[in-house]
Amino acid sequence: MINIPEWQRCLDAQFGALKSGQYRAQPEDFWVDEQLDFVPEAYGEHLWLRVEKRNQTTLDMVRVVSQLCGVAPRDIGYSGMKDRIAVTRQWLSVHLPGRDAPPDLAQLLNAKGIFVVEQARHPRKLKRGVHRTNRFVLRLSGEAIDDSDFVGRWEALCQHGVPNYFGPQRFGHDGRNLQRAEALLNRGWRKRDDRQGMMLSTARSFLFNELLSERVAEGTWTQPLAGDTVMLDGTQSVFSIDVADATLAARAAELDIHPTGVMWGVGEQAKHEAGAYEARVQQRYPDLCNGLERSGVKQARRALRMRLQEPQLEWDAKAAQLSFVLPRGSFATAVLSELMVMH
Prior knowledge:
Blueprint: H1 12-15, E1 20-21, E2 30-35, E3 46-54, H2 58-69, E4 76-78, E5 87-95, H3 105-111, E6 114-122, E7 133-140, H4 143-146, H5 150-160, E8 162-163, H6 176-187, H7 198-217, E9 229-232, E10 238-240, H8 246-253, E11 257-263, H9 272-284, H10 286-295, E12 300-303, E13 305-306, E14 309-315, E15 320-327, H11 332-336, E16 341-342
Parallel strand pairs: 1-16, 2-5
Antiparallel strand pairs: 2-7, 3-5, 3-6, 4-5, 7-15, 8-13, 9-10, 9-11, 11-12, 14-15
């Protein structure tokens, strides 16, 4: 049985051991706003709602909206999964061909703790993963923010980027999702046992974190290596390199490009130095790697580093407030894990 380890942080060698801190004393301490790079077209079969919710998961919200609108949950679209202990804003779509939503929908949702910020019609369902970024505003407290190195850590993350780890929420309480994924892959993955592909995602995320942790430990996570596939900052565009030259190193130092790690699946393994990291992960976890390949899921790439966009640090008498924007799929908890031992 695989247990979740403590993955390597990037700043410990420079600043030493972390102090403890709090980041969710109440939902209002963790605020997230999902950002699209387009607007609904104001006509069509789907009602798009931008909503704000507190202390509810995305799936909780889907169940409420489906009941109030008289549609099946599959007729509701959303782009990203948002945390429960938080105040979150996101878009969802409701398929209502030829009919309007209940006239008092906003009031009914308000009674359930879901507030409609704006709404419009659109011809298409909102699909998973189409939002561009998430804006975070986080309120931190505890001894970590009083530490003399706190500002230095924050400034280092702003300057050099953050290891793009999948957060602990991906693996479930005490890593139970990973253990479920391991058992499922060992007996042979089937769609009917994992309708949403969550177990595949969990296993791939774990292997990615393992590879990233090794590169952080060896100081190779920010610079391209021979055989790497690199990603342009702010896009999903990638290209492979055989040789890591000075031009690529300069672009990486400017956060213009980032090395990537494999999201395991069917595909060719990297070569040269980058390939050696993948080979070591496969040697440590052959059952996970082989199970993912047998499932037929296709290999993908994920940036090893994320750039903090529009970062700000503000203070009041009792807390530090961080605000920043991350690309979709990146976790704010990966930022916090470099600043405090999280409680």
